[in-house]
Amino acid sequence: MKIAIYPGSFDPITNGHLDILERAMKLFDKVIITIARNSTKVPMFTETERLEMIRKVVRSYKKVEVDCFDGLLVDYARRKNATAIVRGLRAISDFEYELQMALMNRKLSDGLVTVFLMPNEKYTYLNSSIVREIARLNGDVSRFVPVVVLKALKKKARSAKR
Amino acid sequence: MKIAIYPGSFDPITNGHLDILERAMKLFDKVIITIARNSTKVPMFTETERLEMIRKVVRSYKKVEVDCFDGLLVDYARRKNATAIVRGLRAISDFEYELQMALMNRKLSDGLVTVFLMPNEKYTYLNSSIVREIARLNGDVSRFVPVVVLKALKKKARSAKR
Amino acid sequence: MKIAIYPGSFDPITNGHLDILERAMKLFDKVIITIARNSTKVPMFTETERLEMIRKVVRSYKKVEVDCFDGLLVDYARRKNATAIVRGLRAISDFEYELQMALMNRKLSDGLVTVFLMPNEKYTYLNSSIVREIARLNGDVSRFVPVVVLKALKKKARSAKR
Amino acid sequence: MKIAIYPGSFDPITNGHLDILERAMKLFDKVIITIARNSTKVPMFTETERLEMIRKVVRSYKKVEVDCFDGLLVDYARRKNATAIVRGLRAISDFEYELQMALMNRKLSDGLVTVFLMPNEKYTYLNSSIVREIARLNGDVSRFVPVVVLKALKKKARSAKR
Amino acid sequence: MKIAIYPGSFDPITNGHLDILERAMKLFDKVIITIARNSTKVPMFTETERLEMIRKVVRSYKKVEVDCFDGLLVDYARRKNATAIVRGLRAISDFEYELQMALMNRKLSDGLVTVFLMPNEKYTYLNSSIVREIARLNGDVSRFVPVVVLKALKKKARSAKR
Amino acid sequence: MKIAIYPGSFDPITNGHLDILERAMKLFDKVIITIARNSTKVPMFTETERLEMIRKVVRSYKKVEVDCFDGLLVDYARRKNATAIVRGLRAISDFEYELQMALMNRKLSDGLVTVFLMPNEKYTYLNSSIVREIARLNGDVSRFVPVVVLKALKKKARSAKR
Q1: Model ipTM?
Q2: What pLDDT is recorded for position C156?
Q3: What pTM value is reported for the model?
Q4: For residue D138, is it within any domain?
Q5: Would E134 be classed as within a structural domain?
Q6: Is D1 in CB contact (< 8 Å) with chain A?
Q7: How many domains does chain F have?
Q8: Which residues of D touch E122 (CB under 8 A)?
Q9: Is residue F91 part of a domain?
Q10: C162 is catalytic
Q11: Does a structural domain hold residue E140?
């Protein structure tokens, strides 16, 4: 069985992430979408909120497991018997960061293959940070995120104003 | 009448911004240079100081209006009946960010055209942040900013030392 | 009256070119789409064929003029009293070539403004050369070019096989 | 069974190609390395020579099939029941071309997933054209190609001199 | 005597920095590796710790001097009678930042030449920040830094846990 | 004595090349500007014409030697006892090609250091091919090339018309 890890912050999960996830599902027997806990950045959504949103969104996907992890990605992948790490490639700036990560992960764990997938071009310039920014300014992000996330963003916006 | 919006932080306005503004004036009947209030970054100059510097610098330009705005740029552009958003293109890193912004703005407001202009090559690698950095280290930025801004930077430097 | 020049090889014109043309029409009173005759490359379509295809495609556009030119673009623009040159920006590789051209044109004619416009993201990676390549391999390019061009490509393919 | 296509000119096959092939073998049940016949460029090695070199080099790989194809890659992939197209990602310039190809292939055949893999960093700037160039100048390419290819390059160099 | 300045944060010094330093030593009679004090970022290691690590690592290098500086790099270079500033070039993102710095430094001090050197490709994607990140997650960074730095990183990790 | 090689096609030599040459002269005791004979491209100027133009242009430079070479650059550099290869860095596209070359040269000759220098920003987008193109269209290239080259370009243009 070929297992792939799809790691990220998912703060929040967007339609671009889902697009990558669906492509990964065509390639692997199981895909573990997993939140990296170690980020030094303060997220908009707590780990629990992010996990819950992902779980709702991927509920109908048979091959997908949702998880969190601490420590090095390569150690986590080893524990999960993963063959591959899945990463979305959008802009050039992504490209360099992703290559750096892939190289470092390879140096730390030679057997692991990093697989880059390209989202639909309508998601080329979409990322979680721009979604948060537009939502913060009360813009309409309904085309960029699943309904569950849309609701959560609106709730955050309301509570921020109080 | 064709109206264009030239948005930014202008913290502070540089000769590179003025170069773009002058090009935009050749294309449009009115250009509104406008400070985006929503930035999460703490600016060097207050909004009032930045507005005042811009006003002094563009005083002799007939077609230019100076303003501030809150919320989404596309909503502001609609209120101002603008046809276009003007952006300067310098380095590749700009390019990707600007494309992302242009795409998002288009998705949020289809009628609006983002117009990219290229500054004189002597301003290719100039931006407000490097001006602030050099000024902070007591370097000479007289080639990079208008006289009004130069004075304001020196005043800031003096008060920072006290 | 603000006049813009939209120069290119248009071998053949694609939906991406039309997308840029339509954006330019929002900004200018007249847009001259014009074939550069000087290219050293051997085109797939003759100048007459390319002109004819463009004319059919833009027939309903009131503000658009179709033309050819020899010599330097800046000299042509001066003869046409143009304020601006319009260029589409797609990938990074475009970006550098376009900036080089814009800089050279500016050095040769300071008054002329090069205006970069971004096509719809569905045309981000579309260009005439890939259209010719897919058509040559009998692939379906109906999503990438106007009907007139589609027919011309099929005719070329048939005559190439005889 | 998951089948992947690894297309290219392979003129000649290099250690960088082999590195990508070996990674692909970890992900898929079968990998078809296949020479695209349609290139307009005149190759250094004939199709037969290139096929023979690849066959010798991959002889011990159980999961690998060697082939040639005409026409569109997506049509070939469909005939072969392939799930994925494998491409190596090296430099930024690759990146844009590859993304363009991936996008076009997706538009032509939605089910097919393009998988980008990153070679070992020692092959980051290696490609067939630089190998041919160095070999032509009698430089030592033994680190960049398999022994079979090295011999073929030397033979070509000798016959070119006569 | 040709003197070069190699400035940086060196938080901490990596094998990539040493690779660049050794190349610079082939070109110049003296190379001053120097810590820029002005950074607004909070470092992992104090200035004293960083200086000490560098000193230990370069002890056997006859041509190398270790130093710190305040203020503008160009003023420091002038005081040191330096002919050149040495910078490592790795990824594209580096490239743009470095060019901006080089241009600004040139505008501030015309005589000074910025020399870009390329590290061994095994250090292409290595930088201090990724070393700190991996060390923080208890990953093995022994391939990326000198022994002295490895020990210091482990000590930091232990004290962070208490 | 530190010797550097500055290789190229120099078809023709431009002010951008001279700018790089002058920077190299500050760093090295001798700089050999040398024409690579192996190019497969058909040049505008013969080797003799190119050599003659370079010789006239660098006549007053004491440290500069003018030459041609066949075969691998690294072999030539070894015969000349060179410490370094000098290359100009302009745009991103250069950057990747140059890095590839530098890496290959290093693999072929480990002792040789490739030194990248950045031209004045007014030459950022200047290269021989755009000079030839503008000259061919009777544009004014007097700002881009030395007087000797300007004359030679005009002579070529006249003879092309007969």
Answers
A1: 0.88
A2: 87
A3: 0.90
A4: no
A5: no
A6: no
A7: 1
A8: 121-122
A9: yes
A10: no
A11: no
